[in-house]
Write a structure and sequence with these properties.
Layout (H helix, E strand, L loop, with lengths): L4 H14 L6 H4 L1 H5 L2 E3 L4 E4 L4 E3 L5 E3 L12 E4 L4 E4 L3 E3 L4 E4 L4 E4 L3 E3 L4 E4 L2 E4 L4 E2 L4 E3 L20 E3 L4 E2 L4 E2 L4 E2 L4 E2 L4 E2 L2 E2 L4 E3 L4 E4 L7
Parallel strand pairs: 1-4, 2-5, 3-6, 4-7, 5-8, 6-9, 7-10, 8-11, 9-12, 10-13, 11-14, 12-15, 13-16, 14-17, 15-18, 16-19, 17-20, 18-21, 19-22
Antiparallel strand pairs: 22-23
């Protein structure tokens, strides 16, 4: 999914045909456009002045071209001192919602695609590797948001980093919770709930994310 200049022009034309307002967005967000962040279909970025987006030569295409349904716009919001790191070209569909809390870090590897209506909430740290395919309506959160107390009234750990390796396929409507680790080459079936470790080159599915097969390869 290398975002060559020819591919970007082709995508821009298709997006203009889909919605003529897409001709206006690069002009409105010209600073993002010049830095290699292409916003279409009303998707937006909200960035605190102390937050950073580190692209490392990569670019972000935020706006779907071929989705069969009209999806409401999404956003990327970076709060104080948050950091979004892109290590290659990344594409996001309409409706993707990414929220980085104060001091949080989200890293996304190159050639990774995030489909419509996926939500990523980062309080501490989430890393997504290269060549990943994240399907629609996936939820990835490294925090419980609220604290849970034990019988002595002590707060239990509410946040733990999430690690997703390279070339991982996450099916539609999966939920990936704090402390999860998905090794490279794994496939997580639709609607699975991930709360722990998914082995490399395995297929896991069902609400309990049970492993059903190992030593598999999948094609992006």
């Amino acid at each position: 999914m290398k975002l060559s200049f020819k591919r970007i022009l082709s995508a821009a034309w298709k997006l203009f045909v889909k919605d003529p307002r897409n001709l206006y967005y690069p002009l409105r967000y010209w600073r993002h456009f010049l830095s290699g962040i292409y916003l279409f279909n009303g998707n937006k970025i909200f960035k605190h002045r102390t937050a950073r987006i580190e692209q490392g030569g990569g670019r972000i295409l935020f706006g779907n071209i071929q989705h069969p349904f009209r999806v409401p716009p999404g956003f990327i919001r970076l709060q104080e001192n948050a950091k979004l790191i892109i290590t290659g070209d990344v594409a996001m569909a309409d409706g993707v919602m990414i929220e980085l809390g104060p001091g949080a870090t989200l890293e996304i590897g190159g050639n990774t695609y995030i489909n419509a209506n996926t939500m990523i909430g980062v309080k501490e740290s989430i890393r997504i590797g290269r060549n990943c395919a994240i399907s629609g309506e996936v939820g990835i959160m490294d925090t419980d948001v609220h604290f849970i107390l034990d019988l002595k009234g002590n707060k239990m750990t509410a946040t733990a980093p999430i690690e997703i390796g390279d070339h991982v396929w996450i099916g539609a409507r999966c939920t990936i919770l704090k402390g999860s680790r998905i090794d490279s080459g794994a496939v997580v079936g639709a609607t699975s709930l991930v709360t722990g470790h998914v082995h490399a080159k395995s297929v896991s599915c069902a609400s309990s994310c049970q492993e059903v097969r190992r030593n598999v390869e999948w094609i992006l």
